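Input for the complex:
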Amino acid sequence: MGLEQLWQLQEIDLAIKALEEEEEHTPLRQELQTATEKVERLRAELAGDEEALKNQRKRLKKLEMDLQQNSDNRAALRKRLYGGEVSNVRELEQMEVKLGLLEKEQQAQEDEALELMEAIESGDAELRGKAARLKEEENNRRIKETELDEALKRIAAGLEQLRRQREELAARIEPRLMERYQLLAQKHGGQALARVAEDICGGCGVLISSAQRGFLYNPEALVYCESCGRLLVKLSDHDQTG
Ligand SMILES: [Zn+2]
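Predicted:
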């Protein structure tokens, strides 16, 4: 009757289904996605920080030039103020005021420059820390990628082997039986056949009626569970443990 072969076929089909589901729902895909997002976020953050540091350095350079200019201006002013060339009191007073303003400006520029230097220093340290973290996250992402890759390869190889086995087995089973199996499998989520152990249907757990029981020993009979409708298989003893 080929019921044992059909049972084997069902086992293969269920294994194929399990692998297909694993392929579709493997958590590794999501893990890789999460790791990739982390890397991208950190990269963007790092680029933003680098840009900010660059601007701070630019501003510091500008301040240093301004300070030099200020220093030159003050020197020139002092030379005129104390050089004795100018004797006009009003003009001298104006120069004093100007000098005072330049000194104030110098103070402000120096304060800002100092603040910037500190910010650049701590920004640099933070950047180095982030760069190290990015390296770690990139490494983690690569590991996840490899894990997914290997899992998918393993699944693909498993599927290929199972499909080949199925093809060989299906060729040896009567078409009529195959048709019956396909219909029942559709109806029962792939579990067309139920194994009988100790007179209980392995599909639904209901006791097989005594009338049905007798047919189970007839190799020519197709016996269905009266409760769930599955095709019952009574495997020979050496298969029962499988
Ligand atoms: Zn049943």
